[in-house]
């Protein structure tokens, strides 16, 4: 019996509507918007209610005498955002900025116009409301290096208390590393609760290659691991849920949604005195007594600074923007974790995710009535790993691997092509032979890319999309490391553990790479330049650096240079992106920034206390 695309998806759509009605009722819909209380003066105005912005706004509002305004360009979290398995639905809707990169000179050959969608959250909770929910902090050497670069107070020992302060670890896998986790914090972190039989194969494959199963948030991160997730009892636990919802009862915190900030206002002494924003079709003004905190993320934060006159003077002059402060580094130093998507193996049936995984009434019933089953976890990535670096400190990895229990042809290309941005002709030519087959993919990800890109202005219009140029693979070492990643992925797929599942590498020659001998470094390099794309981890565009760095944008207290009363608090301040998914570190930045701000205004930060006893691990 065969099914058309329409008949295959009609039942799931009907059942999905039932599921979402249940979610809306049980998740407890919360109206974050308090624009009816909008005042004129605030002590702090926070721009952007994302991973860092929601965190810092909630923490600042703990000071009862301070009035805090949080402005978010997006709206309420959509119902499907609460359901972990539906994260992919969010990446093409109103909760996303729907950015695109520029055409890439050195890569993206298998993608439409050699450019890709560049998803960023435009919603309460920001990207924590639309992301994959993986909780991994980064390598301890990332933070020690930040401090060695001239940023005191950002060493691993200095930031670990803020990771722990944010975390409510509710998992069962890491009893041996309990001292590295926090208990009782706002951000729920749990075990990934649903997975396919392939998970055991991935972990066993790592052991056969000499790697232990580890806690990457513990003392070291070389090894294989099952991801921890920002999920609580089957619900996505974004910063909207973790920080803003509990803080919403405070009368001194006002949140205004659908508020697009168009300008930071400065007086003649270059002190920020407020912000202008568009809301309900009108231009409004909020005046600030103490500080403006920009938390728009690595794309929007530099854009807001530049349209306000803070950035590279020559670039601002090109767009007719009056220069408040010449800060050359604004928008520069863009970094991202580039990953190869498309290394695929087929397997025997019954081991992986199929197009019917979410179509089953049993799966939907498990979630509605027990908050269990495939809907309770994001589908796809079931394990991840880090391997030793070839150069320098071997324990500071340059590659992370994402083990995905599904093929790139999982949905016959119905949504994956547009979601990731493949050129359709290329996609079907390369992946059509594995249509209808179960399997898995391994995505090598650069954790410490050498390539640097930029975010610049398209025009002086603050509502125009910025020009995003990640400049992927412009540095030859990035290609070299991803070739190493391909070889390691092939070794994993060839282990006895994976062959038990009938693993067979999809070895069709990559279109455009037929001029190279298959299996040579030149062939793999061609594959890298064809299939590598974003892992949605932009950082670095408002670089934290000492005054001696001409491209530094903020100091170690996150204060923007050459102006007064403005800080940037988000992933854009990372001088080097962390060696892992960025959400946990971005939340940590929000936590630490709140204490930095409090201390500068005479408020003694509370000591971090881990309150919850560690649970008994499973056997």
Count of distinct structural domains: 2
Number of strand segments? 27
Radius of gyration: 23 Å
CATH topology of the largest domain: FAD/NAD(P)-binding domain
Distance between the termini: 43 Å
The low-pLDDT segments are 1-11, 613-619
The largest β sheet comes out as: 7 strands, mixed
What is the CATH-assigned architecture of the largest domain? 3-Layer(bba) Sandwich
Helix content: 25-40%
Structural class: alpha+beta
Q: Please state the oligomeric state of the protein chains shown.
A: single chain
Number of helices: 15
Name the CATH class of the largest domain.
Alpha Beta
Mean of pLDDT: 92
Shape: globular
Q: Which features does this protein show?
A:
619 residues; alpha+beta; FAD/NAD(P)-binding domain; Glucose Oxidase, domain 3; seven-stranded mixed sheet; six-stranded antiparallel sheet; 15 helices; 27 strands; globular; disordered C terminus
